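Hey Z.,

So I finally got round to the flavin-adenine dinucleotide thing we talked about over coffee. Here's the setup:
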Amino acid sequence: MLDYVDLESKLSSEERMIRDSVREFVQNEVKPDIADHYVEGTFPTELITEFGELGLYAPNLEGYGLPNVSERAYGLIMQELEAGDSGLRSMASVQGALVMYPIHAFGSEAQKDEWLPKLGSGEAVGCFGLTEPEHGSNPSAMETYAERDGDEYVLNGSKTWITNSPISDVAVVWARDRSSEDTPVRGFLVETDRDGVTTNKIDDKLSLRASITGEIALQNVRIPTENVLPNVKGMKGPLSCLTQARYGIAWGAIGAAKDAFREAQDYATDREQFGQPIGGFQLQQQNLAEMATQITLAELLAHRLAELKEQGNLRPEHVSMAKRNNVRMARNQTRVAREMLGGNGITTDYSPMRHMANMETVYTYEGTHDIHTLVLGKDLTGIPAFD
Ligand SMILES: Cc1cc2nc3c(=O)[nH]c(=O)nc-3n(C[C@H](O)[C@H](O)[C@H](O)COP(=O)(O)OP(=O)(O)OC[C@H]3O[C@@H](n4cnc5c(N)ncnc54)[C@H](O)[C@@H]3O)c2cc1C
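And the result:
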């Protein structure tokens, strides 16, 4: 894959080994079938436990049998998965950063012992319920609520656009606790086989088709008070999870762009028109030069984020800048790659259009491009412009 300024030389031997093994796995186990899954709108569920065996869920967390790899290695894993398909990276991001991370950071010892090993191995699947039908970019206006009743909580509300909800064993549901005076947002671990939980699948997506998305409806769902994440209250809970996941997205999007670049570069040297390879025309060389430059700049930002994260100096605003820039880059460059493939570029025989369509979701979820613009605007001026 493209590495124009030799970022390879910055990797430790362990990071290289991890990157290579995930690359090989994606090449052999994912690429042959992923376009079919995309067309069918299915996720290759046999990969769920295989991801676990490879240690791809929350690989940067410590304890509970988790690999505790470097933040750069974690980023490289996300990049390799998304070079296969954004649906694969979404599976690993949600399970690792949005389900295991909050349990690891804010859970009780009993919750960690119960869930982290099962989620880490892929024996159990989790989902993250924050978005609601009427509240996407502004989740703090959420309507889903919990009320204490003796040693139980009763939950009511609905969540939508929830990755993996129809195949999940447990949902981390963010809801307002109406039993406390200031109705703080709290995280509730809701087993999906409880009475009152339904998880309908959303079928009509034109993007991220190789990923299962659904709703979560909660009607008088009773859970024991031990299922509340005890160590966080307020929007800090879900937002800190999103920072972890967005860090992975900032890396992952580069993988999609690199895979599209590789296809375009190969095609440009093979495909002949007017008696020569199309890569011999200046217009196509400009496309390749711009793609390679934009991918390289995005990758440099991702590598710097890894250093800041290792040092404990990574701010959510840094992650907003990288998510915003790198996904926009991938959205633009996958489209250029698609264009360079001419008519063949709109088929599933080549990856760029699949990546391009996926990027519409990635541009929107985990904070839309606009919302990250506002996050940066506030950081740079001190003036919030959200409402
Ligand atoms: C395939 C997929 C999977 C997803 N997975 C999950 C998941 O696992 N868990 C989960 O909780 N959520 C998930 N989401 C939801 C996702 O995070 C939301 O779609 C996203 O936050 C945007 O919310 P919305 O769709 O309601 O759009 P809206 O918030 O209604 O935004 C619509 C448009 O208005 C713009 N806008 C909003 N506010 C402002 C403002 N203040 N200023 C300027 N422009 C503004 C937005 O940028 C956007 O362009 C997923 C979404 C998709 C598509």
